[in-house]
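In the previous chapter we treated chains in isolation. Here, by contrast, the input contains two separate entities that must be folded as one system, with a combined length of 460 residues.
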Amino acid sequence: MIASGRILEVVVLLASLAAMLFSILAAKRGKVPRIRKIACLEALPELVGRAAEMGTAVHFATGMVGLETAEAPIVTAGYAILGHVAELCGKYKVPIRYTAVFGYNIPIGRDLIKTGYTSGGHPELYRDDMVVYAGDHQQPYSAAIMGYIMREKPAANMMFGGIKYETMNTLGAGAIAGCMQAAGTPRLYYQPFLVAACDYAMIGDELFAAAALVRRKPEELGGILGQDIIKMIALGLIVLAIALITAGSDLFLRLTRI
Amino acid sequence: MSEIMRKAVVLSFAIPALFIVFSYYTGAVKSEAARLIAWPVTLANFSIILGVATFTRYHLERVTKRTEQWPFNLIAVASFMITFVLALVAKSTYDYVVSNVVIVLQISLMSFISFYNFTLFYRATRVRTAEVGLLLVSAILVMLWMAPVGEAVSPAFPTIGKWINDIPSGGAMRGILIGIAVGIIGLFVRSLIGYERSYVGG
């Protein structure tokens, strides 16, 4: 039934599913895990508050990675943060600008911002032109963001999602324009730039955790505990693999091939 | 988005995802799964129409309202229209415009990265913490390994730089990578069972 060479993968997937379900159901029954604070997520109200004080806007981008790719979960995590920031903007009466790179970003962005402003208590502040389409390429996308940042000088610049090399240009422009910057991506090669360029950054899998944390629902917090259980299992497997290979056994390697 | 619509979006993600997972692990219905994987790409390509409509409306509105810097909005729309028409009626002129205007502008924009690298490096140096100090020293040593000048100054620089890149940095990167993979699995599983709905504002 299961294709050869993928049995271990199925076992890992089922174990992950079991760990997630176990922790989600436990959280729903009242055993809500205590999650450490993510500094960048905690700082978002400060960034929006700064924009409110300065009377300028907040800029948001979710990056060049598309929903039709294998990295779609990164983009959806970015959307979750966009919804949260839009809610904060609605609460503090701050305009937001979301630069869209793909056509389908437009209805998604508009819907998230509209819902956010409504939840924040000021649906009347929402406008369709808060979402601006820049074109399906990296160069017009980064040019549009850089131009906007240098012209309008928003108080805060945020980039969460599947960001690529446009990060360098846009965060560089943000640094020159004096924006307070926050960004996060699990994409490995851009993390040093985020740390260097931003006031607050999410590295590694923090973006996924933040996406679950924004609503603070028990089942979502339980999901984070589930992830930690999977990490512990992975850590155990790594230690086992090191021990077996050091002892000269190829049992683990054979296991990965079944 | 209404609650019914939200559920529909979540289901429209979960059902095809389950089908693709089933096909991947069993090796069955491969061609159907491949077709299903091609759908989002096709849909994403179609969404460019929506993008063009939004782009044109946004810039034309700013032109008609004579907002600040409206001539740039006019240039944006005019550039799009001219290139679009040329692609349809005069292919050789279109190729000329792409080779001599678009690509040149793209290269110029890419070259900004080198300048911004310095801006970001300078910005990083202003932060006075031990961690940032460590980051900067490591970065300088790795740069001295990568750049030919490092070996010319001292043969030790390439050895130190390579060690930093391969051992502490490589180890940390792998650790982060495991965390990311688990994060993706977690988000995928949450989405499959319908608990991850924040991306639809739920």
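Chain B has a mean pLDDT of 85. The first helix of chain B runs from residue 3 to 26. Compare these points with the single-chain example from earlier in the chapter.
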